[in-house]
Design a protein that fits this description.
Layout (H helix, E strand, L loop, with lengths): L1 H16 L2 H24 L26 H16 L5 H14 L2 H26 L1
Protein name: HMG box domain-containing protein
Subcellular location: Nucleus
Pfam families: HMG_box (PF00505), HMG_box_2 (PF09011)
């Protein structure tokens, strides 16, 4: 980003140092290009917006699904409990509480979810390899 700023400063400085004759050459090119652009725009009859789905890659519904992370698995199991304890909490607040619970969970509890994720990830990679073959 800083490099772009430096380049813009250099271009701006060189534009200011151009003589009127040198500037007029570039201003004429810009005027001609603007006229060309306006003509092309006026004659264009296609859609002005392209649907995002035209560029997005469709996922194969038969492809194996990635396993949930250890945290997401933990959060899904504890979400109902947290919702019962804080019935007026928003989803964002519940997520913050779940995050704090995960960070404060004893290591054996966290390790149980991490091990389960690792086991499911191995299965996922095996299924994906079979699916791609």
């Amino acid at each position: 980003m800083r490099q772009m700023v430096n380049i813009a400063k250099m271009v701006s400085e060189s534009w200011r140092t151009l003589s009127k004759e040198e500037r007029s050459v570039w201003e004429e090119k810009a005027r001609v290009d603007r006229v060309r652009y306006e003509e092309e725009k006026a004659s264009y009859t296609g859609p002005w917006k392209v649907k995002a789905s035209a560029f997005s890659v469709q996922k194969d519904p038969q492809a194996p699904k990635k396993p949930m992370s250890a945290y997401l698995s933990y959060a899904n199991k504890k979400r109902a409990l947290v919702k019962a304890m804080h019935p007026k909490a928003t989803n964002g607040e519940i997520s913050k509480i779940l995050s704090a619970m995960w960070k404060g969970a004893p290591e054996p509890v966290r390790q149980m979810y991490i091990n389960e994720e690792a086991r499911l990830r191995v299965i996922y990679h095996e299924e994906k390899a079979r699916w791609l073959a």
